[in-house]
Design brief:
The protein has three domains: 197 residues, Rossmann fold (3-Layer(aba) Sandwich); 86 residues, N-(1-d-carboxylethyl)-l-norvaline Dehydrogenase, domain 2 (Orthogonal Bundle), CATH 1.10.1040.10; 133 residues, NAD(P)-binding Rossmann-like Domain (Rossmann fold), CATH 3.40.50.720. The chain is 43% helix and 15% strand. The chain has a six-stranded parallel sheet with strand order 3-2-1-4-5-6, sandwiched between helices. Helix 5 links the parallel strand 4 and strand 5. Helix 9 runs parallel beside helix 12. The longest helix is centred in the middle third of the chain and has 32 residues. It is globular, with a radius of gyration of 24 Å. The structure holds uridine-5'-diphosphate-glucuronic acid (UGA).
């Protein structure tokens, strides 16, 4: 099939490359000339394991085209995926749809034969109706269909999530269009992915409801972890005990830092605005947002306590600063709150992250990037394991810090409290 993917951000680039890998010809379009130039030179604008390889093999095979020429890409394709960003609006908490509507207007100008227009961007309920309205102002209804096909890719695991999805959701009010999408996804359906067809509005809501539910699951566990710390119970055991109930399921029950990333914080806010718009108070999700914000303060209080309220001149090492491993993404990472807080209180911060130095900390005095684990931990008072990168999972702490009384705050529960105690470390973790 001939496909046009608009937006070479996370969703667009991964989906475009994966569709090409399934044998389709994919035109990936972006208005950012520099990004397109990078991609044409086999440089990735984002960090995602395995992406470079799949982009380069499909590019070489002529199945992946990078261009800024949106008109030509639309004219050359049968299916057009809208994958542009829908960030939180500056004034309200709702999703900003400026890019989506601007793309819809360009699509309208370039439709010369039947096209299926698919929104993959996370968009509020009824956005598909609005896109349809924009296009039908100038184009005959029989020449196009607007379909919703939300993405459920996780950063760092995106290729695997595309190739082996739990489900593919297609929201369409037209049988011909859903059939065409079923054909496109057939190779994945054959491998066992569920293909679920629903209404367009239904699919739009499924995406928000899923992200908000996962955020709720995490926040719920984070609060249970707080209770575990007070009652001497191990939250990991509670999670296992709960997860064995198939109705609950064992995934996304890991207590840790506040949830971050570009999606959960943005989508939880946006769905509550959608609720308010339709006079439905989504009070559970509203309290999840509050609980997650509060968690950042709570974690800083814990650090204060670990350092016996004496933060000034203390040397603190951060292992990992991204919101999760296998990504360079800093968006809404709890380290963005914690590091400036400790710095303001007079601590000297050293940080190391496998994805490299971060511009977010560049201007902060006494916040220094180190190139490896041993330099970051040398002579510090406290080691904070902030992100669960693989390389932090089997550290020899005695070798890393010669200082006798250093402390460890493991915010991802990577180590066993009993073993750490046996080895004589001053070890703190989450909910244990
Ligand atoms: C999330 C969803 O998982 C994807 O399905 C969705 O497609 C994506 O948002 C999106 O809307 O684009 P992502 O933001 O990449 O994916 O990251 P997750 O792996 O879901 O993690 C989000 C946050 O939750 C991270 O801060 C992570 O550390 C935290 N988390 C996750 C926990 O604290 N505990 C867990 O058990 C799981």
């Amino acid at each position: 099939m001939k496909i046009c993917v608009i937006g070479t951000g996370y969703v667009g680039l991964v989906s475009g490359a994966c569709f090409a890998d399934l044998g389709n010809v994919v035109w990936c379009v972006d208005k950012d000339n520099q990004k397109i130039e990078m991609l044409n030179n086999n440089q990735m604008p984002i960090f995602e394991p395995g992406l470079k390889e799949i982009v380069s093999s499909n590019y070489d095979a002529g199945r992946l085209i990078f261009t800024t020429n949106l008109g030509l890409a639309i004219k050359s394709s049968d299916i057009i995926f809208i994958c542009v960003g829908t960030p939180t609006s500056k004034k309200k908490n709702s999703a900003n749809l400026r890019h989506v509507f601007s793309v819809a207007t360009t699509i309208r100008k370039n439709i010369d034969k039947y096209k299926i227009i698919v929104t993959k961007s996370t968009v509020p309920v009824s956005t598909g109706d609005k896109i349809e309205k924009i296009i039908s102002k100038k184009v005959k209804r029989k020449l196009f269909q607007v379909v919703s096909n939300p993405e459920f890719l996780r950063e760092g695991e995106a290729l695997r999530d595309f190739r082996f999805p739990d489900r593919i959701v297609v929201g369409s009010n037209d049988k011909k269009a859903s059939k065409k999408l079923k054909n496109l996804y057939e190779p994945l359906v054959k491998k066992g992915a569920n293909f679920f067809i629903t209404t367009r509005r239904g699919a739009e809501l499924i995406k928000y409801a899923s992200n908000a539910f996962l955020a709720t699951k995490i926040s719920y566990m984070n609060e249970i972890a707080n209770l575990c710390e007070k009652t001497g119970v191990n939250v990991e055991e509670v999670a296992i005990g709960m997860g064995l109930d198939k109705r609950i399921g064992s995934r996304f029950l890991r207590a840790g830092t506040a949830y971050g990333g570009s999606c959960f914080p943005k989508d939880t806010k946006a769905i509550t605005v959608i609720g308010d718009k339709y006079k439905t108070n989504l009070s559970i999700i509203k309290s999840v947002i509050k609980s997650n914000e509060k968690r950042k303060t709570l974690l800083m209080d814990k650090v204060k306590k670990i350092l016996s309220n004496k933060i000034k001149n203390k040397k603190v090492a951060f292992l990992g600063v991204t919101f999760k491993p296998n990504t360079d993404d800093m968006r809404q990472s709890s380290s963005l709150k914690m590091i400036p807080f400790l710095q303001r209180k007079g601590a000297i911060i050293y940080y190391y992250d496998p994805s490299g130095e971060k511009k977010e900390f560049a201007k902060l005095k006494n916040v220094l990037f180190c190139r490896d684990i041993s330099s970051v931990c040398k002579g510090v008072d406290l080691i904070i394991i902030h992100t669960e990168w693989e390389e932090f999972k089997a550290l020899d702490f005695a070798k890393l810090s010669k200082r006798k009384k250093f402390k460890i705050y493991d915010m991802r529960n990577l180590y066993s409290p009993n073993l750490m105690k046996q080895k004589g470390f001053n070890y703190y973790s989450i909910g244990r």
